[in-house]
Each structure stands twice: as structure tokens, then as C-alpha cells.
Amino acid sequence: MSKTFTSPVQWLPTFLILLLLLVGQAHAQKPTSFSYPSPVVYSANVSNVYLSPTVTGSVDSYSMPASPALPAGLTFNTNTGIISGKPTAALNSTTYTITAHNGFGNAVTTVTMTVLNFYLDNANAQVSFGGTGVTISHPNGTSSGTSVGDITLYENVATLGGQAVDCYVLTKAINNVSSWITFDQTATSGGGYDSNDPKFFSPQLNFGTGGGNVTFEFQYIFHGTYNSTTKSGTNVVLQNVTLNTYDIDGNGGTDSYQFNEFGGFNTSQLGSTPTVAASYNAATGLTKFRSTSTTNSTTITAPATRVQVTYSYLSNFTIVVGAEGSGVSFFFLDMAYRSFAGTNITSSPSIDLDTSSPGVANESSNCGVDLAFTASSQTNIIAPNALSEFDVTYPLSSITNGSSEELVINGATAGTTNHALNFTSGSTGTVTVGGVVFNFTKTATTVGGITTNKIAFTRSTGGTTFAAAQAETLLDALRYRNSAISPTNGERKFTVNVLNTVFKSPDASFSAGVNCVSIAGHIYKDQNGLLGTDANTISANSNSGQFGAGEVYAILVNPVDNTVLSSQPVAAGGGYSFGKVSPGNYIIYVSNSSQNIGTTFSAPTYPSGGYLSIGENLGAGAGNDLLVDGTLYITVGSIPVTEANFGLNTPPIAENVTAASQPNPGASQRVVVPTLNGSDPEEGTLSGGTGNTLKITSLPTNGTLYYNGVEVTLNALISDYDPTKLTVDPIAGAPTIVFTYKEIDAGALESPNATVTMPFTEILISGDVYYDVNGVTNGAIDGTLINNPNGDQLYANLVDPNTGLVVGTVMVNNSGHYSFNSGSGLRTNSTFEVVISTVEGVVGTTTGVTSVLPDYWVSTADGFGDGSTDGRPNGVLTVSMVLTNMTTNLDFGIEQAPVSGSGSNSAVDPGGVANVTVPANTFTNGAWSTDIDGSVKNIRITSFPSNTTSITINGTTYNANVPSEVSALLSLIIPVDANGSPTVAIAVDPSGTGASSVDIPFVTIDNAGKESKSIGHAVMDFSALPVQLKSFDVNKEGAAIRLDWATTEEENSAFFEIQHSTDAKSWNILGEVQSQVNSKTEQHYQYIHETAQAGQNYYRLKMVDLDGSFSYSRIKSLLNEFGLKLTVFPNPASEIILLENLDQYDVKKIEIMDVAGHMVYHSSTVTKAGIRISNLASGKYIMLLTEANGNISSKSFVIRK
């Protein structure tokens, strides 16, 4: 059937309109997947409410009906849909309807809210554990409360603010009770007691020998909320509660001292003449009130045996009753304020983390970012006496994110500041806060399957106690931190107490609320998208599995400016997570690669292979966001997003193939093409066989393709592809065969083009020559590529080691590179030597078989591109072509050797056996050591210093009369600075007395490890004259040379003798300058040398004392070049050097000096035949020509042989 296509001009406008409509919908689609957290329960006057919606699409505004109204203190933002504030009144469970609007439609959801008043002011009124209106039961099947684990429920123990309160009592522990008289006595009087009241909690029992005790745990709850399955109810806090305990006495028996233990109270009061004493029981963490008498008191409310304690707040608390002897014991606990004649009132330490309301637990919430236990502006701790301990406890079960949950000591200046909260065993350490060093002890205690962790802080130094203000500083420093990538939402409840030696503070509670929202979802391979058996569902529907880790990315973008907020790869299976995010609006895109945070990203990109979007949905069930564009627009509120899902599909993929490089087979021989592989979501791997079809979409230009022996044509289809039948015949040389193909799946979908690359190589040896100034000290042969050191052309000569003859030669090119191939003597299955030389090899001869380099040039290394060398830096490398057809990076390094410097200093010889420090500049103040192409690194002394008994280097002494030490000295490498001055201490012991000269000969070693060919000298001139020479400088002044020097101290000094030399060895006296004889102040002197010689001039001062003793200054040098321009040629020269325009000069004498200032040639005449220099060594020289009128001309030149 034929089809007719319309002109592009006809359908293009319609396409643009549809595209614009789709773009508009992408930024204003109807809201979907709209929700709030629900149901929610808050605490009046405590909870900080922040409810934010989660929604897909864009929202213009939010609305909710005026009725029912939100609780007082809460507000609703119609722009963001956020409900926030602090509720100030209780609210029964109420459901609110909220609508999200935009121009394309609306979405509706509900949220159910309850506000409870958990804090009730008891005002020290009666809390009844019996009597009228109180119901007593045992809801968990027990009938007495006299066994461990029994629960006794007291209903309607109080009514506060219209709210009824219950209390359940757990019998937590029983120790050595022989029998119970009654669990809770309701009779007002009986044998051994009177004045009881049914409102009291009055256990009566018999203890066995040695006494015993019973522990009760009380919990106040809202009336009617007790759950017998969970054995709990909705807890409530009673503020301002008073507890009286009566009749703490004895029963007349031996050791029958009765006691009660309480904790968490603010004050305690005893009678004016009490028979009760208080102490702290560390085992229970409670204060123990113990009778000091074994006498029985029948009046239970007698002041002497009575204790009254007050609580700012009370919710869950423990009471222990007991006796230290056997027999009957009665206990009477009355929760009400009673007038009391006693005056022994003691205040306990107390902590209140929210000082705005007594007993109100402080709470704070965010995504686990340093939640403070209390506001630093509050005073939370009151302690009448010094404190001995500061405790933080919490249930281990609330710590769900492992070591990511921490107690942080903010502002600590030393010690352990971060404490992981998931510890299961004890440990200790210190932390310094506010200048106080605290010990901390961590314990984990398990009772009844419940583990409670405690971190206890005690004073480490400066005493055993600390003041309330110091405890306040520690409290203000406490922070809860959760650094998990995806924290578990919920509350972590902490209890804080301070203790002294008798009392423990009431429990102060802090609730750290972790309220993180997160975004996560999946990018699925979904072969049928929104169609098929799971229509309208994004799911993992693919026969070939799902995306592997990192194969596709989810990109979180700010919709305001399209900046990337997070870029996450999928895990295996397609799951991804952005972790914690702030509530707000976002766009999620599919991307084929990671995107940098802060960059702009505004459209999806898909994994290679032609992947396309087939739908998106916020949720795992049926539904979609009404678009198919690889994009999700979402608003995240207070609910984590777990299923922001995308579906992708793809046609088959053809893989690029790059074969390993291989030798050209030559002639008409063919090479098998590597297997052409592909994949398809439905068919899996495609690597040949039945049903696998290929299409050759381009042919190579430098070879011929064949399939099953037949030449392949353009766009040919190869059915049931057999990889062994596809071959190629490359052209001669080193071509790279390139052609393209496509995979075609069973549904006739074509893959994008894939490229096949098959490189062929020619046989080859190549490498480079480097001006390698640091040798292989850096692990490599490198530097500047070179081919003509000193202007001499370098050659690479190929030598057959079996015959010793040159088989090929090539010039090293301007890039320092050389190469040999089959056209320049190279052949396979042979071994060769590559020789670098200034001598061009002659094939078939021995000319060029050894390495020759210019004067002062040396080989630094011969090796390979990986930095390895043959260990013999001689300009020759051996290479085998037996197992390879190509060897590259056969590299050579060469450089110029360094030049040694020289210098001198003077010093006073102390006489006897004594070391004198050799200043570092003694080696350089005459001339620096230099390396023209690198840097000076070390020196080596070449012979034992003259006139020296011993020399000490870096703390090691070498004696002239010990041969082994002399040998060690001459092999010692001494580090120096960039100018050649040693960087380790050197001292000598002169062998003479008085004036003497010590000469230290040395060679310089450069950064390539090469030694200089010249010898340097460091000279120490010793004298006994104590003139303190501050400075000595030599400078040009016109045709003359001016000497300036200064002294800081002179003692019995006669004069300065100025000495001059042209070789630093033979000295002439120029004149004298009188000194100041004795001086303690700085003196300055000057001398003008009017007849300075051309070339190198050396000067020193001879400092003469009144008694004739003397010493020398350091040597100063200056190169004096002046006169007519002198031209010599050739330059460089080897045998003879000529003077240009010789007839212009009236020659008096000709002198030649080397770089050390030594005269090596002298003559009073010169002819046009020149000066023969064949007897002079290669190097740099200076020629001085003196005319009859005294004019001097100079010129430097080089001798090269």
C-alpha cells in the first residue's frame, strides 16, 4: 500500500501549536497525588506545628472551609498550604478538608488533628489512691499487685481543669518479702498504727531475715486511656505535687530500720527533731530516707517519723519501701500538701528545660540539625549546693540511625565532642566545656528487655564537684544531631538529671523531633508504559531486567531558576533517592548523566540507545501525571515522597567495537571482524545466531568487507549473522578500518548507528632525546626535547649487535624525535641497539656504533616511556622485536655538567683542638656553583682539606689520620642551596696555630646527579685579630674600583692593608688605611683602586693589630670589562683564534684567563695568524688586550674540541 505525505510547510504550524500546548501543560498541569500527614496529635502550649502538603503538578492557591476552625494559635497559608504555629487550647479529633487549585483543575485531601493538654496543674491538691470516686482494678489478670509485674490501676485519682486523671502502679521488684499483710491498706487504724486514710497508698508486709524492699513504679495517664495489651496509656504530667510519707520508724526488732526512697523532688522537709536521715542511693538513683531508730511509733503522722517532699512536676516516678531488719513494716504515702511543724527543709537540685511552664518538656524538631536541649538565654538549673554528677539518659530503642545519631557538646574546647548514641557497651573519656574538664562515663543497662543508655558527666580536675552555673554551661552545650542521609522520622526522648551527694533532680525531659521529608522513587524499564496488562501503571515491566546502578540519573531542580539541587544515580533495579530535602516545590528530570550542583538543567535527557519516556506518576499504584515527558512537577510537604516514578523504553542498541591494534597482514589476506554485539529489552543480548539481523550502513574507504566470501554492499542486510564469516581486507601501510552498522530487532526497530574501528600498524621503533636536567630523580626521562646540543646535530644509529655494524641511521628531528621502520633497516624477530651520537652512522660500517656527545655534555639516562631505565646512562639502548611489532618511547636524556664555585672566609684560630665553623658562603662568596641547565643540589669533597686535623659535617667528625674516615668523607654527599652553599653545618680544626689557610676542594653535583668537571675551593684564612668586620663590598666607580667596608668593634687595631689579586692566589699590596685603634661604634672605610685590571679582580683586607698580629677578611671579586670592543673568531674555536681589525690596536700585551680567574696564556705580541689554543681545555675563557695607552679590551669566547 502506498502513502501520500503532505508538504512540511503544511503540517509545521499545527505541530508547533501542539508543542506549545504541551510545554504550557508541563508548567501548569492539574494537581495530583495531593496529601498531608494524617492523623496528627499535638500538645497544647508545647508543640510547634508545621504541616506542609505534598502534591504533583503546579498549585496556584490552597483553600479550606471556615468551619471547623483550626485550634487557637494555628494559621493556614493559602499560598503555600502550610498549617503552622503553637496550639494554645485542647481540640478533640477534627478532620479538615483542603483543596489545591490551578487553572487546569483542583485536588482535594483531608487532615485529621487532635490537640491534647498533657500538662495539668495539681496546685498541691490531694491525689487519691482510694476513697470516694476512686476505682481500683488489676487490668492484666492479676488480683493483688503483690507479684513482680503486677499492675494496679487507680482511676479518677484527680480531676484537673475538667480532665480526669488515672494512675497505674507497676510492682517492679520484690526483695525478701516473706508475706504481704495487704497491698494497699484502706483501714484507718489497726494493730500498730492509726490515722491512716484510704486516700493514702499504704502497703503493709513482712520482711524476712536481714530485711528487704519493694519497688513500685507510678505513671499518671489520662482517664480511660489504659491499654491492657500495651500495658500503657496516654501519659500526663501533673504540675505542683506534694508527697508525704509517714511512719518511717522501726518495729522494735533488731535492725528494723524502715526506709523510703524517692527521686525527682524539688524540696524535702523533716521534723524539727527527726528520727529520719537522708542519703543518696547510687544503686537506685534515689534519695533514701531511713529511720535512725528501731522503735515503733503508733501515730503514723508523728513529725519525727515523717518526710514531706514537693515536686514541680510528676508523671512517671519510682518509690522504694523497705526495712533493714525482719518483721512487720507499714508504709503510708499521702499525695497532698499537709501543714508540717518541721523546719528541716532542704532543696534538691532541679532542672527545667522549658522555664515558661513547670515540668513542661522542652521539644524541638527539624531534620536532625543540632537541636538544642534548651535555650541558652534561660537559667534551667537550680542547685543549693555543689553538684557531683550530670546525667543524660534515653531508651536505646529510639536510636534507629546508628552512629549517625549523636549527642554533640557544642563549643567544647577539648576532648570528645561528638558521642554516637547507639553504643551498647561502656566507655569513658573527657570533654572540656566552659573551662571545666568533665569525665564522661557511658553505660548501657538492660532491664526487662529494655535497654537504657546513660552518659554521666563528673568533674575530672579541680575537685570532685561543680557549681550549678558550670552545669548550666554543659546543659546549654547539648545538641542532638542526626547526620543520616535519610533519617528515620520520629521523637527521641532524653532525660536530664543533676545530682549531689544526697539528692537527684527531678527528671527534665527533652524531645528531639526528627521531621525530615525526602524524595525517592524509581526509573523503570517499562516495556509497555501505560498500556498492556498493567495499563496506567509505571512499573518494572521488562523481560531483560531493570537498570543497573548508575545507568541513569534523577535530577532534582529548583523550578524558579532551573538550577540543579541534587543529581543521583539509580541503584540496581532503578531506585533512586535524593535523601533529605526541605518542604517546597521541585522538578524531577530523567538524565543520561550526572549534573553539577548549581548548573542549569531544564529538560530531560535519556540514556544512550534511544530511551524515551512512556509515563510518570507520584505513587506506586495506578495513575499518572497526565504527561509523557520524563518530568515530574511536585510539591513536597510534611510527608516523605517514596514513589516518584518514571518509565522508559528503548529500541535495540548496537555497540561500538574497537579492535586491538594488529599488524597489517599484507597482500590480499583478510582478518575476521570482531563480533558485533547489541542488546534489546525484549530479546536480551544480540551477538549472532538465528534471528539476529545486521544492516551495514557505511563501508570502509581503506579496505574491503566480505561476508561468507562475497563483497558486502552498502545497506546490505545480514540475516542470522555468523561472526566468523564477516572479514576485511585492509590496504597496505597502517590504515584504520572504519565502518558503521545497525542492529534490527524482531519488531524491525533499528538501533542508532554503531562504529567498528580496526587499527592496523606498521613495524616501528621510535623515541625521543630530552634535555633532561634532572635525570631520573623524578622517576622519568623528561625535559625539553633536543636535537643539537651546542649546535651539533644528533643522530640515532641502529646497530646489529650480532655483527657490530650500523644497519640504519636517522637524524634526530627538530622536535627531538627519531623513528625507524621497515624502510630504515628495521625487521621483525631481531634484536638491535639504538645509539645516540653526534656522529652520523654509516650503514655497513662501525662508524656511529658508539655514543659521542659535545664537550661538557653527558648522558643522564637511557630508558623507556614508563620511567624505567637500563641502569647504564651511556647513550645506548637494546631493543628486541621478537615478541612485538612496535616499540616506542625508547628515550634518552642528556645534559650539561655543572660548574663548581669558590670562596673564602677568615676566622680566628682558637688554638688547640677546637672546631671552627665554616660559614656556608665560604663555598660561594667568590663565585657561585652553577648548573647552566638545571640546579645545584649537592657537593662532594675530593680530597682531605689542607692544614686540617679534622673536619665535622652535620655532627659527624672525619679525622685526617684515619684512612676509613677519609674514605667516608670523600664519598659523602653534602646538600647545598641553589647557589652551592652547604645547608648542613661544617666545621674544621686547623692543624696550625695563628695565621693559616685551610683549603676544602670539592666538586658540585646537579639535580641530575652529575658531577662538575672543575674543582671548586672553599678557603678559610685563620688569624688571631679580633676586629669585628660588619661588611666588605667592591663596586665599579667609572674606570676605577671602590672598596667599602665597615666595622662594629675594634680593639688595639693598627691599620687595614688592602691586597689585590688576579687569580685569588698571588696577592699585591695596594695601600693602607688607618683604623680607629679602639672603637665600640660602627666605623666606615673606603679605598679607590684607580688601576684595576681588566678581567677578574680579587680583593681582601689584612687587618693588622698594634702588636703585629693580623687576620684576613673574606675575598671579594669583580669582573672588570672595559675598553674598545674586541672581536675574536671563530667562536667557538678549537685550534686557533683570530682577532678582527687587529691593526686598530697598539698591543702591549695579550692575556687569556679561564672562568676561575686563572691566567692560562700571556704574550706581548699577536699576529694576524692568530693565537694557537690547541693546548687549552674545552670551556669558557676571557681574552684581555692591553694597549700601550693603557686601554684594556676584553671578550669572552668558547673552546670546543
TrEMBL record:
<dbReference type="GO" id="GO:0016020">
    <property type="term" value="C:membrane"/>
</dbReference>
<dbReference type="InterPro" id="IPR013783">
    <property type="entry name" value="Ig-like_fold"/>
</dbReference>
<dbReference type="InterPro" id="IPR015919">
    <property type="entry name" value="Cadherin-like_sf"/>
</dbReference>
<dbReference type="Pfam" id="PF05345">
    <property type="entry name" value="He_PIG"/>
</dbReference>
<feature type="signal peptide">
    <location>
        <begin position="1"/>
        <end position="28"/>
    </location>
</feature>
<dbReference type="Pfam" id="PF18962">
    <property type="entry name" value="Por_Secre_tail"/>
</dbReference>
<feature type="domain" description="Secretion system C-terminal sorting">
    <location>
        <begin position="1128"/>
        <end position="1198"/>
    </location>
</feature>
<keyword id="KW-0732">Signal</keyword>
<dbReference type="GO" id="GO:0005509">
    <property type="term" value="F:calcium ion binding"/>
</dbReference>
<dbReference type="InterPro" id="IPR026444">
    <property type="entry name" value="Secre_tail"/>
</dbReference>
<protein>
    <submittedName>
        <fullName>Putative secreted protein (Por secretion system target)</fullName>
    </submittedName>
</protein>
